[in-house]
Structures are given as structure tokens and as C-alpha cells.
């Protein structure tokens, strides 16, 4: 399939985007339901937020080992199995009698997630020729953005209307339908080569810089995003308005995704630097403006619009670093993203319980600013020209 264009692979890319939708929605579902989860399970909101951390740490710990363990398995059945795991995990969460059982359900979902993104990123790359990698990954990532745009806000509104358990139950049904769709539409692809090439060994330094920066950006993002509903409530926004606000904010993520699709195959370095700068400035503005409603909401909107470019950008940068096979590069992006999510959610829990919400926004901006500094220095890991063959001498 190496000769195929994005148009040639449209059916496969579309169904992978749908699978990314259910994956991201499953991962971040508790974000918009924190108040209902906490009340329903009898735990503080800061403790309920750890449901995001538990999931993320499982993914971070398992992504690379499970990807290596499954590298010789057929890709399509493996991808199908991960989506079935999502469905089962959401059913268990919907029926859970206690917080501990919800934690167990999230752990199960994390195991499936550890394999899913490692496989799906590489799948997207293998459906098209290398020239179209950025566009293919961006389009598949659009499904994840739709998880923010539609999945989380709609499930938040559903949870507010009829209870958080229904949000998990409906998502379980969507996961099951997605598995059927994958089975019918997705074309098979070959598994990754078992041995690392000389080029891959030479690119490990570049890959390490890309995934390290990715970790910092996700730490900053989820320090704040895990508790974004609390930030909105602190401005005096009504609880019933949180879901619709998240819908609007998520939709703005399409702006970042559009930028990724337009510039990722042409000017990846500029795209990455501008994206990080906008996110840092927006979160700093939120920290300074709290609790002024209009200014805070605008800052949150700008921040989330910019973040829409991050997943596609770093997945593509990791593939182009040529430091590992496509599956393993995907595993490193998946693992470090979730390490960042887990650390960010845990840090946010401490800040919410202690210094408060302005510190939350400052911490997120600080982590992202450090990531931006790495991008500035590491020119070969974050190149201007995505078509140039990477050099294998040390960074920077």
C-alpha cells in the first residue's frame, strides 16, 4: 500500500478516525463528569480526577512492552481487540458499585489503549505513501479531536441530565458498533519489521527529543484540562453550561487540526513553535484573569484551539525521526502522552487541593514553555523541511 494517496486510502482513514474518536472519548470521559462522579461514588473531586491518572499511568507503563509483545500479530485483529476492550471497560464502569470498581474498569481500558494508539498511528502511516504521512495521521487524529469536540461534551451533558452511568453505557455501545465497522471496512496491513535498521538506531536521539517534548506538553495540558470544569465553575458559570462550553471549546480544536493538516507536511517546525507559544500565552492569561468569566473563557478557548494541532504534529514528528519502527514510534508517543496525562492529572489534583486554580494554569503554562525551549534548540528533531533525510549526528 506504499504507493497510495490519501484519497486512495479514504475508507481506511475514515474508519480509523472513528476508532480514534471512541478511544479519546473513553480516555477523557471523566473530565467533564468529575462533579457527578465524585458525588455518586462518595469521593472528593480531587480524588475523582485520579481516574484520569490511573488510566494514563497504565498506558504509559504498558505501551512499549505490549507493542513489542504484539509486534508479530496481525494488525487488524489486534486493533479490533483493543476496541472491544474499550467497550467492556465502559460497561464495567457503568455498572460499578464503588470507586474501586471504576478504577479497575479504567485500568482495563488503559491496557487496551496502550496497544490501540501504537497500532493505529502506524496503521495510518502504512495506508499511504511516506509523502502523505502527515495528512493521513492528521485525518486519523481528527477522530480524536472529535472526541473532544463531540464525545466529551455530549457525554458531559448526558451525565448532567440522567446520570454519569449512562455516559459510560452509551459510549460502550458506540465502541461495539465501531468494532463492527472496523471489521467490515478497514483493509489489512503488514506487521512491522522485527529488527531495527541502522537508520533507526541513528535516529533514536531525535525520537527521544520528540517524545520528551511531547511528555512536557501533555503534562502541561492535563494539569489544567483534567480540572477545566472547575475553572469554568470558578468564574460563576452554571454547572449546566459546562457541557455546552466544552462543546464550543472542543470545536475550536478544529482550528489547530486544520493548521496541522495545512502545514505539517510543509513547515512542521514553525507549526510546532507557534502552537506552543499560543498555548503558553493563553494559559498565562487564564491564570492572571481568574475569576473574570469572559477573559477566562476566551483564554481557555484559545488554548484548546491551539492544542488541536499537538497530537498530529508529534505523532508525525516521531515517525519522521526514524528512530524506531512505525509501531514502536507510535508506542513511544502513546506512552509519553499518557505519562504526561497521568503526571498532569496528579499534579493538578495537588494544586486544586492546595494552592488553587491560578496555580493550576501557571503550572500548565510552565511545563509547555519548557517544551517550547527544547523545540527551539533541537533543530534536527524539529526540522523546517520534513522531506529532508535526517542526519544521524548528535543533537542539537
TrEMBL record:
InterPro entries: MFS (IPR011701), MFS_dom (IPR020846), MFS_Efflux_Transporters (IPR050189), MFS_trans_sf (IPR036259). Residues 12-381 form the Major facilitator superfamily (MFS) profile domain. PROSITE patterns: MFS (PS50850). The keyword 4Fe-4S does not apply. Pfam families: MFS_1 (PF07690). Keywords: Cell membrane, Membrane, Transmembrane, Transmembrane helix. CDD domains: MFS_NepI_like. It comes from the Bacteria. The chain crosses the membrane at residues 12-34, 46-66, 78-97, 103-125, 137-154, 166-186, 207-225, 231-259, 271-290, 296-319, 331-353, 359-378. The keyword Transmembrane applies. It is found in: Cell membrane. It is a multi-pass membrane protein. This is MFS transporter.
Amino acid at each position: 500500500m506504499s504507493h497510495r494517496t490519501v484519497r486512495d486510502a479514504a475508507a481506511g482513514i475514515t474508519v480509523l478516525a472513528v476508532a480514534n474518536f471512541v478511544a479519546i472519548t473513553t480516555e477523557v470521559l471523566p473530565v467533564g463528569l468529575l462533579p457527578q462522579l465524585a458525588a455518586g461514588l462518595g469521593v472528593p473531586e480531587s480524588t475523582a480526577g485520579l481516574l484520569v491518572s490511573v488510566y494514563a499511568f497504565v498506558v504509559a507503563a504498558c505501551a512499549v512492552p505490549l507493542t513489542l509483545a504484539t509486534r508479530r500479530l496481525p494488525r487488524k485483529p489486534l486493533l479490533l481487540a483493543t476496541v472491544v476492550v474499550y467497550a467492556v471497560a465502559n460497561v464495567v464502569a457503568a455498572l460499578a458499585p464503588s470507586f474501586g470498581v471504576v478504577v479497575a474498569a479504567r485500568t482495563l481500558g488503559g491496557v487496551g489503549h496502550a496497544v490501540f494508539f501504537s497500532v493505529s498511528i502506524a496503521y495510518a502511516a502504512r495506508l499511504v505513501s511516506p509523502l502523505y504521512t502527515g495528512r493521513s495521521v492528521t485525518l486519523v487524529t481528527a477522530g480524536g479531536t472529535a472526541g473532544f469536540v463531540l464525545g466529551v461534551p455530549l457525554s458531559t451533558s448526558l451525565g448532567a441530565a440522567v446520570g454519569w452511568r449512562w455516559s459510560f453505557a452509551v459510549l460502550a455501545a458506540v465502541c461495539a458498533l465501531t468494532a463492527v465497522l472496523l471489521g467490515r471496512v478497514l483493509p489489512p496491513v503488514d506487521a512491522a519489521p522485527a529488527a531495527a535498521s541502522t537508520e533507526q538506531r541513528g535516529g533514536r536521539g531525535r525520537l527521544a527529543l520528540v517524545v520528551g517534548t511531547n511528555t512536557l506538553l501533555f503534562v502541561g495540558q492535563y494539569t489544567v484540562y483534567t480540572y477545566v470544569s472547575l475553572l469554568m465553575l470558578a468564574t460563576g458559570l452554571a454547572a449546566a453550561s459546562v457541557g455546552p462550553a466544552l462543546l464550543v471549546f472542543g470545536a475550536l480544536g478544529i482550528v489547530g487540526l486544520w493548521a496541522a493538516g495545512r502545514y505539517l507536511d510543509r513547515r512542521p517546525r514553525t507549526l510546532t513553535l507557534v502552537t506552543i507559544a499560543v498555548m503558553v500565552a493563553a494559559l498565562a492569561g487564564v491564570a492572571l484573569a481568574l475569576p473574570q468569566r469572559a477573559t477566562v473563557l476566551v483564554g481557555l478557548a484559545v488554548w484548546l484551539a491551539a492544542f488541536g494541532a499537538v497530537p498530529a504534529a508529534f505523532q508525525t514528528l516521531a515517525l519522521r525521526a526514524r528512530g524506531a519502527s512505525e509501531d514502536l514510534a507510535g508506542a513511544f508517543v502513546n506512552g509519553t502522552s499518557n505519562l504526561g496525562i497521568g503526571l498532569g492529572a496528579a499534579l493538578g489534583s495537588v494544586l486544586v487541593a492546595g494552592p488553587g486554580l491560578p496555580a493550576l494554569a501557571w503550572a500548565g503554562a510552565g511545563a509547555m514553555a519548557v517544551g517550547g525551549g527544547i523545540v527551539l534548540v533541537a533543530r534536527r528533531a524539529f526540522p523546517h523541511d520534513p522531506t529532508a533525510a535526517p542526519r544521524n549526528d548528535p543533537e542539537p
